[in-house]
Amino acid sequence: MSADTSRRRFLKGATAAGSLLAAKTVLLESETAFAAPGPTAAGDRVRFGMIGIGMQGSNLLRDSISLPGVECVGAADLWDGRHTLAREITDNPALPVTRRYQELLARADIDCIVAAVPDHWHKRVVVDACNAGKDIYCEKPMTHTASEGFEMVEAAHKNNRIVQIGSQRVSSLLCAKARELYRNGAIGEVEMVELTYGRNSPNGAWQYPPPSDFTPQTMDWDTWLNDAPKIPIDATRFARWRCWREYGTGVGGDLMVHLLSGMLFTLGWNEPPRAASALGGIFRWKDGRNMPDLHTVLFDYHGTPVYVRLGLGTDTPEQARFLGPKGVLQATGGELRFAPQSGVDNSPSYYSGGFPAKMRADYVKQWHAEHDSQLGKELPSETTYQGRDWDDIKPHLWNFFQAVKSRQPVTEDAVFGNNAAIACHMANESFFRQKPVSWDVATHSIKS
403 FRET partner, CA 20 to 30 A, in 200, 368, 381, 387? Predict the structure, then answer.
């Protein structure tokens, strides 16, 4: 009889010491503060300027103006087609539009900024906004390089500005419930985290259709390049900028930062990892890009391993799994599942199958004498929490606009956003250097 057969026989014949209560599903109460719009006095409105009205920026603009007491009073973009789009979204043919975002920063009637620009523009826009006395919501990742974040943090603190970074799941009820469960000891001290997500489509790999009306007359290309190398105007690079290191941060800055931000919030961590080791490559999308389409990373967060796998060639669910000695927390978009575990033997050890008959019988008798008193002790139920999708933008925007009015701090401020972004930069640096990297706290830099 094999050891595996012996093991199955013991488990099959054993009486479980501590079983689960019936599984249950809990519906988390939806956020209602912004669900029912009503009249808002002019003096109570938050008036914002929109910088960048592309794919994500257009969504932010739509969601922002759907919130009660929030009004867009100006928009900026370097491509004129998006001036038209901003006026269409706001249903305001007279909405002031400009190619120069600095004009919005100079307006006294603008309380704050919402910005959705390519990664290589984040630092300049955030620092300029803070120095102009404007609060700002900036899309993730906060930075294009690891060195930029500290200047942005300094600008926010020096000017006493609200900075909210746009990894919106930290404002979701699902993340709040995960944080509550973890703080209350549901799974014990976390031993490992697994973060995974995969796409399998051209759109998922950022192969967006370039705009047809894209000429030197309609687009300020040289300004868009910012500090990137100067090249001729290129509509494909404009639409698919995440594919190139010169402008974006790849799957790290687009996808990984969401998962890491949710993890940091859930576990109450607010720090960069100590080290990162990455593998990956361009396996499917050999379209001229220089960022990997498959990126796997093992992070060291003060001794806790965090594994991340992101790919653009195979569709897999986006999920975060927190593993501890008392169970597993698993988050997948609109659902959070808590599966408790006892961590104890439910039957005599199958190893005793290797004992002579009398020794085995004595051992089994002794085991039952010591453990049968625990029969009937039930674990907490396996519970599934369902709620609004953790990537719904409205709760995150609402928190920002409320903070602009109240001056209360936000969760995903410049320090938090910087720590999440540093992890992504470490993942990218490890990939490009082809060796593990570590974070040097003293010099604020990534070392090999």
Answer: 387
